[in-house]
Write a structure and sequence with these properties.
Response regulator transcription factor; alpha/beta; 5-stranded parallel beta sheet; about 10% strand
């Protein structure tokens, strides 16, 4: 019997899924809560092993991002199924990029949600309509169309250099480097991948191969 954690800030959704799991008898819900932090705290205090599958809402009300939540859960040892309204492909793609095993819509029948949980718990790929629509055309989605200079600025800035040092390294004015960062942020917003902070810019740069996964500038 696989173990399941339900993380959704809508209690009614959690109660419905928990009742379905109990009724079917194939999955044991060992945690139900509104945030990833609550789940990880429960893990630490209970000394329970990671669950087989976490069913995670795409957007929680605690201000966390889907990338943060999925990455923390995967690092803790659980597989993650995103359970959300499937009309936000950009956020769904972000979840998949962060390591989610798949996505199932909240409009799906409970039986389909349980099938998704079982599939992922067996270590099998989850292939459904929501998954296909999320990854379809992913490269077009990922391409923010950065210029060569914008990529240079992002490569150095995301890797940790202060903007002033970036300008000096590239031999441009500070105002020019700052304008480049502004344009980069605008371009990422336009393709559904906002990067309001420097940490977010680092994530985008890693996703696009501009810097290495350890944060080092690509090619240096």
């Amino acid at each position: 019997m696989s173990t399941v954690a339900l993380i959704d800030d809508h209690e009614s959704v959690r109660l419905g899924l928990e009742a379905a799991c109990l009724r079917e008898g194939g999955e044991r819900v060992v945690f139900s809560g509104g945030t990833v932090k609550e789940y990880l705290t429960w893990r630490a205090t209970s000394a329970e092993p990671p669950v087989d599958v976490v069913v995670l809402d795409l957007t929680l009300g605690d201000g966390t991002t889907v990338t943060e939540n999925v990455a923390r859960l995967v690092a803790d040892g659980a597989s993650v199924v995103i359970h959300s309204v499937a009309d936000r492909p950009a956020s769904v793609r972000e979840a998949l990029a962060a390591g989610a095993a798949g996505v199932v819509s909240k409009s799906s029948a409970l039986g389909d949600v349980l099938d998704a949980i079982r599939t992922v718990a067996r270590g099998e790929a989850l292939n459904n309509v929501e998954w296909a629509s999320a990854v379809d055309g992913d490269r077009e989605f990922a391409d923010a169309q950065l210029s060569t200079r914008e990529r240079e600025v992002l490569r150095l800035y995301a890797a940790g250099l202060p903007l002033k040092a970036v300008a000096e390294r590239l031999g441009v004015a500070y105002s020019t480097a700052k304008e480049n960062i502004t344009r980069i942020r605008v371009k990422y917003v336009e393709v559904g991948r906002p990067a309001p902070t420097k940490v977010d810019l680092l994530r985008r740069a890693m996703e696009d191969g501009i810097v290495e996964s350890d944060g080092a500038p690509s090619g240096e």
